[in-house]
Design a protein that fits this description.
Elements (H helix, E strand, L loop, with lengths): L29 H8 L17 E7 L4 H6 L5 H5 L4 H4 L4 E2 L6 H10 L3 H4 L5 E3 L6 E3 L9 H4 L5 H7 L3 E6 L7 H6 L4 E4 L3 H13 L4 E7 L1 H9 L4 H18 L6 E6 L5 E2 L7 E3 L4 H4 L2 E7 L2 E6 L4 H12 L3 E5 H6 L9 H4 L5 E5 L4 E3 L5 H4 L3 E2 L5 H4 E2 L2 E4 L1
Parallel strand pairs: 1-7, 1-8, 5-6, 5-7, 10-15
Antiparallel strand pairs: 2-17, 3-4, 8-18, 9-16, 11-12, 12-14, 13-14
Amino acid sequence: MAQPAWQDPEPLALGTAPVPEYGSGSLADLLPTLAAGLEVPGFTAAISELTPADRNCVFLIDGLGWEQIKAHPDEAPFLHSLLPTSRGGTGRPLTAGFPSTTATSLASVGTGLPPGEHGLPGYTARNPQTGELMNQLRWKPWTEPKAWQPYPTVFQLADAVGVHTAQVSAPMFEQTPLTKIALSGGSFLGRLSGEDRMDVAAQRLAAGDRSLVYTYYSEVDGKGHRFGTDSDAWRGQLMYVDGLARRLAEQLPPRSALYITADHGMIDIPFDEQSRIDFDEDWELSAGVALLGGEGRARHVYAVPGAQADVLAVWREVLGEQFWIASRDEAIAAGWFGPTIDERVYGRIGDVVAAAHDDVIITASVNEPHESAMAGVHGSLTPVEQLVPLLEVRS
């Protein structure tokens, strides 16, 4: 039945938000599945479509989602040709997890846990002990890493039982807290060039009878943030990383499986007032808000004590047609952060959580000038951000 013109439109129903496939087809399930195939105690094969291999390599391309590969067969002919191999030959993607952002996703990859357990629930999140916003990518302000994320990584557990384990990445990542709590275990080998990383990853893969090797490339994401995914700069990076993936695939030692994946996709948002809602200039949205966390398409909103219900009502009224707007408990009950939430993580999640449905972001021009100027963004539950490849090459 048509809605009367005078009646306010209904906000998006939370039940219409796609929930990540935690436990069967999310990034958090990848390394536990590979570890189970390597007979590391305590792990089960959550992604049932994958076949075990003696030597496993994960190549994570930051920012290169499933939809971007599908849309660019000319720039990424090798990766595009592998789409039918994804997720064990089913031709299906994985889901990143929520929010679909680097710190959260890398922690899910390395620990094998969803965000509600590893405790990195966004780009920035409130530290309940200090009341400050914690940037979980840059680790500012400094927070004791093991207190923030106490679980061992899959790499550490695999290394402890004799699996040859290595990470090959840019040297600058070796000592970062995010690497320590999410991706450490075995050897870290820093290499500046992408070609060197591919070559060393192949060498490390061959160095053990049972191997688990991880390598990473960041600049597809970097160019997307700065110029957007419709730019020549981004397409150039896609062409480059397509060549890197082919280079690694052609060097696989016997009994190997290469898995090419990503931490999230990306969406370009126009630079206009309708598409970019500035929290710092909006008195309605900022009323009763003590801290604004997360990022443009996945916001944690921390209310002044006693104002939680009012903030939720206003955000639903103002943004409910364009964002899924949930209270903390509603977002948890919907499974956005995983099936369970650790007690230490509960207060890190916003009193209100806003996940973008439309092509729109909530910027903060005063407090987040760099992030507010980004052309390409991510973080929400939409397919273009959530879906990531699990392309496979075997030898």
